[in-house]
């Protein structure tokens, strides 16, 4: 179903307002706990305004222990917007306005990439429920720009946009894996090297001033992610909550990630035609998030537009809606569990939260598997990587 650009923008505006209505309840209670969890209106925007010194217009990476836990461009957004705010409420409202504009831009970009399914971004319930949790839409919008330009072979612009996105939130770095495969498959080795060098140079140009002047504050984001234990929403925390205690978590998470990415590479080699970046970006980021030690509620903002631009057949819409249903269920579950965890009289117990976390992960895997199955319908019949790996070792007659 194709929708005109104006109608789609109107739909995105309505979705933004619906989401703002959900979050605005907390303004009346100034995000008091556990009320902000009971009503699922928690947001990092007002919370970090005070906790990270934005209320006093402090430089976001000046402190060794209280620097913002985001890459540098997100930190700059947090810092710059603090100068137009006098309170957590005004800080939230101004940032929410910018995030709404970014959401509309993401919807429009999805239409440019996949016009027949772009309306799904604007009506996806889990997307609407999560718009104003934090600043991730800044990175998501630039990631979508990088994908759009890459698939139109504007590689220089794409590499710049990707570097900006990685400097805003680190997740898009994993898109380099399909990007390198696509350029290699197209026999554009010179372009491959140029793309990597440009992305690296732009990332360094953005990050070096911070790394050299406030190294500890700049490094805090990366250190927190490396030192993180099993955290909310992850496979690993669900196992722990269900009584399966796992040691050496960093190694297990890395091992699962490597298995997933290796499987993804094998899948790419199985394709007869060179895929577009839009068609495989969801799969690689879904793998990363399923293996991760944390799944923050706003991560659905990353996956929803990527899932939409990966769809190629109406028969796969059921998988999208099953996944959205599971994500919406998880959105309710995480806040109700945190409500109980922070002193509410009612909430979701540990076992229920762990079960719903696993349901969400299973639904994500199901959507990824559906997209993989659809892509493999055009399988490489001239000999596949599976043949190379598993058939070549057979004895000769």
Describe the structure in your own words.
The protein has 19 helices and no strands. α1 packs antiparallel against α5, α5 packs parallel to α8 and α10 packs antiparallel against α11. Helix content is 69%, strand content 0%. It has one domain. With 397 residues, the chain is an all-alpha fold. The longest helix is centred in the first third of the chain and has 26 residues.
- From the alpha carbons, calculate the radius of gyration and give it in angstroms: 21 Å
Q: Please report the total strand number as a whole number.
A: 0
Broad shape = globular
Q: Mean pLDDT, rounded to whole units? A: 93
- Main beta sheet, described? none
Terminal CA distance reads 55 Å
Decide which structural class fits the backbone: mainly alpha
Portion of residues in helices?
A: 55-70%
What is the number of independent domains? Answer: 1
Number of helices: 19
| Oligomer type | single chain
Runs in which pLDDT lies below 50 for 5 or more consecutive residues are 380-397
Transmembrane segments: 91-110, 117-135, 155-183, 195-212, 249-269, 276-295, 351-372
Keywords: Membrane, Transmembrane, Transmembrane helix
